[in-house]
Amino acid sequence: MRTADDPGHSASGMSGKTMRSLEYASGELATASVTAMERKLPWFRRLPADQRASVLLITQIGVSGFLEWLRSPDAALRLSTEAFRAAPRDLSRWMSLRQTVELVRTAIDTFEKRLPEFAGNAEEKAVLTDAILRFGREIAFSAATSYAAAAEARGAWDARLEALIVDGIVRGDAEESLLSRASALGWDQPVAATVLVGNPPSTDPQEVLYEVRSRAARLGRPALLGVQGSRLVVVLGGTIDEADADAVLPRISEAFGEGPVVAGPTTDSLAEAHRSADDALSGLRAVVAWPSAPRPVRSIELLPERALAGDPEAERQLVEQVMLPLVDSSGGLLDTVEAYLEVGGVLESCARALFVHPNTVRYRLRRISEVTGYNPADPRDSLVLQVALKVGRLAQARGLW
C-alpha cells in the first residue's frame, strides 16, 4: 500500500486517479451546487444574473480550494479560507450572513452527494466525506468572520460619519452636505430634531453609545450623538410637544453624566438643527447662573441667564416675546409690570404708585401673563420679566426697535 508521501497520492491519502477525476469534474460540481441553490432557495432565484454568476465563480473557487486542501490540508487551508474571506466582502453588500450560510450548506450537501462517486474504494469515500464536512465548517467560519469584520468596519465608518454630522450641526454646516451624510446613515427626511447637550456618562465611547441608543430605541426615536471634548451632544429625532416633553426629555437626559442637561428648541428638520444646537450650547454655558435649574432644562427657560451671558439670540427673544408685546398692548401693562417689580411684588404698593385700585392691578397682572406668558407673581417669571425689560430698554437705546 502506498503512503501519502508517494507522488501518486495526496497528503490526505487520495489516489492520483481520484484527484484527476475530481479536477475534471470541478466545473460540473460547482454548476450542480448553483443549480441546487436555485432549486432550494427562492430568494437566490430572485437575484440578478450577475450576482448569481458571482456565486458560481465563488463556488468554483471553493471547489478548487477543496482539491488543494486534499493535496495538502495544512498548507492549503490558509489559501482556501483567505479566498473565501475576500468573497463575502463583496457578497455582504447584497446578501446577509444567514443567506451566505444557506449557500454554503447547499453547496456542501451537493458535494456530499456527488463526491463519493469519485472515490476509488470505501476508504477514499470515507476520507472524502470527512474532508468536505471539515472544509465546509472552515468555510462557514471564514464567512462568519468576514461578515463580522465587515460589520465592524461599517460600524466604525458609521460612527465617524455620525460624529461628522453632529459636528456639522454644531458648526452650522451647509444643508446639502449635512443631509447627504445623514441620508447615508438612514436618517429619514424631513424629520423634526431636538439637540440636547450635557456631560458624557463615561469616557468609554461604546458605553456612551449604548446609554443613548438604548433609551432612544425604547422611545422609538432615531438619535445621533457625538462626544466633543467634555460635552455630549445628542440629536433626537421626532417632534417633542408639551405633552411629550415631560416623558421624552427626562428619559434621554438619563443617558448623560452628572451635571446640567440643556435641550434646545425642536426644529422642523435636521437641516435646521443648528439653531437648536446654538440655543442648547448657549444654555449650557449660562445654566451655572441658575443652580436649581431642572434637569433637563429647556434653553428657552434660560433666556435671562443667556442674555446676561451676552447671547444676542436670547436678547432678541426676550425683546420679541416680552418687551414688544407689552409696548404694543394697551391699558398700561408696561407701566404696571415695571411698577410691580419695582416694589417687590407688593400689590397695594403697586396700586398706590400707579394711583389705581388694587383690583385694577390684579386685572393688569392677569393680562400681562396672557400677553407674555410670564406671571409677575411667580419668582422665576418675575426674573425673566425684569431681565426682559432691561434688555428691551437697552435695545431701544441702541435703536434696535
UniProtKB/TrEMBL annotation:
Transmembrane segments: none
Cited InterPro entries: CdaR-like_regulators, CdaR_GGDEF, PucR_C-HTH_dom, PucR_C-HTH_sf
Presence of keyword Protein biosynthesis: no
UniProt GO molecular function: DNA binding
A Pfam family per the record: HTH_30
Chain ranges of the PucR C-terminal helix-turn-helix domain: 333-391
Protein known as: DNA-binding transcriptional regulator, PucR family
Species: Actinoalloteichus caeruleus DSM 43889
